[in-house]
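#lab-general

N.A. 3:47 PM
ok so I finally got the sequence cleaned up, no stray characters, all 122 residues accounted for. can someone with queue access submit it? mine expired

B.Y. 3:52 PM
send it over

N.A. 3:53 PM
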Amino acid sequence: MNPNIAKDSPKTWKPGQSGNPKGRPVGFSITKMVREELEKVQDGDKEKAKYLLVKKIIHKAIKDGDKTMIELCWNYLDGKPRQTVEQVGHLDLAILPEEQYQQLISRDMKRMLEQEYEVVED
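B.Y. 4:20 PM
back already:
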């Protein structure tokens, strides 16, 4: 039995204890490992794995009509399309610098007064 596991529950770690005390190994990168593997020529193949992967993706997109692969290819060619996001909700003025806060308050007060009272300019 692991001494770091609390006795009252077999699945609970003691406070301050980790299930992985050594942590992730220094320099460990799955991305790096995948890149290294893609640079290799696999048994029975004549090309590096990265070229075979690209060919497979393109084949699935074009020949099989795989929508996910089509989107993947499109995104690599043109980049993902920009999307606009509409913010709906309350702006927390407490996070603004004082000067900007005062400008917004002055502007909003002016708008409120203009709506409440008919402004007549001579």
